[in-house]
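Protocol step 4 of 5: obtain the predicted structure for the target chain.
Materials: sequence only (see below). No template structures provided, no constraints applied. The aim of this step is simply to have a reference model before the mutagenesis design in step 5. Sequence pasted as it appears in the construct record:
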Amino acid sequence: MATEMKIWQVSDEKGLVPLSDEPLEASHHESDLEQWIEKNPEILGGDLLIIDRQFSAAGAGRSDLLCIDSKRALVVVELKRASTAREAIAQALDYAAWLDVADELHIQAIKDRAAEYLEKPLAR
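Step 4 output (structure tokens):
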């Protein structure tokens, strides 16, 4: 027997309000997800600092979010609203390959974009 669960929102004015069963992709865009995560990076489950949005990784495409973790490793976040297609997996592999061969030119571009995004240079 299946169990149905509802998601509720707590509202000061209306009390408990049931949220729609409408799929997320029907009512929101990837940019909405990007903004939510940008404001609350803990959603990703790791200790990440977002250092850029819509970062252009030469030859690999444009990543939604570029982050750095507590061990100073780069993390590329690519968001998809609906089910993941082969193209999304290929895109993730392109980012992984790009990170794997990051040279001084890549690293300097990342530092420059991070400084612009954070409005201060990355600390050493």
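Step 4 remarks: The chain is about 35% helix and 25% strand. Residues 23-118 form one domain.
Proceed to step 5.
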